[in-house]
């Protein structure tokens, strides 16, 4: 008998705010109209993991519709349990949904110019050269993402991995007709030039970030903007 992930059915307990592939694609282009029922900007977090960023962000930013996503079902289930408490907090002017989907297919879930900002923190680095093609952040992904973003939308990235950081800089260079780098740093916690960006990015460390900081790893960061 094929193995069925037990969390696949458990996650259905949260279907008022957790959506799988089929449900997510129903709202493509209509998240504000059909789900949030307001015109607040939609902020997207790719690879939310255990949700530390999403949870802290919600307590500090309002007038925002936050969509987190991750394709790992078990991890998403444990995050959904935490998000339930967030839902009960009924934060003013902050609403959210969580999608259990693959970020490679963003253009099945979002319509033109629907997303105002993207957070992409500590993506899986796929360190072996033969696995580099599995890295999500590459020219093809940027080309798919571009039409879904509003004019001037920013994409924020953090990573501990030197090789993936360099790779991302190269991929943005290859896409320089559609994205521009507005800041980059090899150590966001020691950054003395981009103060505003540093303050924002160091404000809410993610679960993986806390682990890397404990291991004294330097955190690299990158900000790109849609042109
Ligand atoms: C290293 S973890 C980082 C999690 C979190 N951002 C943090 O910093 O604590 C990377 C996360 O991205 C998710 N992920 C990787 N590739 C993905 C994809 N193509 N679509 C959706 N989620 C993805 C993984 O399941 C994992 O939870």
Number of spatially distinct domains: 2
State the helix count: 10
Bound molecules: S-adenosylmethionine
How would you sum up the global shape? Answer: globular
Order of helices and strands: HEHHEHEHEHEHEHEHHE
Structural class assignment: alpha/beta
Could you say what the CATH architecture of the largest domain is?
3-Layer(aba) Sandwich
Low-pLDDT ranges:
none
Q: In angstroms, what is the radius of gyration?
A: 17 Å
What is the CATH superfamily label of the largest domain? Vaccinia Virus protein VP39
In the CATH hierarchy, the third-tier topology of the largest domain is known as Rossmann fold
Q: CATH first level of the largest domain: which class?
A: Alpha Beta
Q: Strand percentage, roughly?
A: 15-25%
Largest sheet: 8 strands, mixed
Give the % helix. Answer: 25-40%
Query: Order of strands across the widest beta sheet?
Result: 1-4-3-2-5-6-8-7
Count the E strands: 8
In short:
The protein has 227 residues and is α/β, with parallel strands linked by helices.
Characteristic terms for this protein:
227 residues, alpha/beta, Rossmann fold, 2 domains, 8-stranded mixed sheet, 10 helices, 8 strands, binds S-adenosylmethionine
What does this structure look like?
By secondary structure, the protein is an alpha/beta fold. It folds into 2 domains: 1-106, Vaccinia Virus protein VP39 (Rossmann fold), CATH 3.40.50.150; 112-123 and 137-227, 3-Layer(aba) Sandwich (Rossmann fold). Helices cover 37% and strands 22% of the residues. It contains 10 helices and 8 strands. It has helices at residues 7-10, 21-26, 31-36, 52-60, 73-89, 106-109, 139-145, 162-174, 195-203, 207-214; strands at 18-19, 42-46, 64-69, 94-99, 115-121, 149-159, 179-185, 220-226. Strands 1-4-3-2-5-6-8-7 form an 8-stranded mixed β-sheet. Strand 3 (64-69), helix 5 and strand 4 (94-99) form a beta-alpha-beta unit. The chain is globular. The mean pLDDT is 95. The structure holds S-adenosylmethionine. The site of S-adenosylmethionine has 22 residues, from helix 10. Residues 47-50, 52, 69-72, 75, 102-104, 121-124, 136, 206-209 line the site of S-adenosylmethionine (SAM).
